[in-house]
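Hi again,

Forgot to attach this to my earlier email, sorry! This is the prediction with zinc ion bound. I've pasted everything inline since the attachment limit keeps bouncing my files.
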Amino acid sequence: MRVTTLGTGSPIPDPKRAGPSTLVQAGGQHLLFDCGRAVLMRLSALGITPPALAHVFLTHLHSDHITDFNDVVTTRWVMSPAPSPLTVTGPPGTAELARRTIAMLADDVCWRLAHHDDLTWEPSCDVTEVLDGIALDSEGIRVVAAPTDHRPVTPTVGFRVEHDGRAVVIGGDGVPCDSLDRLCSGADMYVQTVTRAEVVRSIPSPRLQDVIDYHSSCADAGRTAARAGVRTLVLTHPVPFAVPGTEHEWVAEAAAHFGGEVHLAADLDSFDL
Ligand SMILES: [Zn+2]
Ligand SMILES: [Zn+2]
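Structure tokens for the complex follow:
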């Protein structure tokens, strides 16, 4: 199993960090978690085209995690030689998001159908909504979902991917909670979006201060990793941003609470489990 942090940014645009998305490759399948800004550019760096995606999973419907969902839907559609619905799994609300996304694309769909004689079908999504339990069990890959705590954003989920005796957890956004601990228990790797309160507090923007109370701090992520007994903790989506040269501070804050390996991910970092 290989985990690649395709995009490690937050809502704040960063030339070095695309929006949040993580690729898990297992059993010859490409599983995409979240569709942040420029996800297809990062996938193309790995030589992966949209039709090659087996499944898309959404942790929640916050804009930074779905900005390029429409790009995945459209580009998969126009690049596929035959009808190939996009398989999407996410929390309740995901089916409505897919419906609205396809509705938003209506003009584009009309123009492309009119222009290409060999394109005779419309884009479509095959959506499964999950909150707690098995999200996928196929060809040796098992994906388990559990609710996370990112209130007032609700519902939100984290995912645990298991294959060949290995497990990685994509925690998404949120603060520590029992169901996240359960999801992470004994996993080889835990990928968590994080913030650092002292960085946020140094920026005099009241709206920015709000991000502290619904994201895990690096210390929170370290404590969750320690409680769950994971092997490696990957910090991603640093909120509001990680000033270049301060990466070690983010890692140190987590490592103070967790004795395993800790990384602050950059775009296109890959980890083999
Ligand atoms: Zn969020
Ligand atoms: Zn986010």
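Residues 182 and 228 are 7 Å apart (CA to CA). The mean pLDDT is 96.

That should be everything now.

G.
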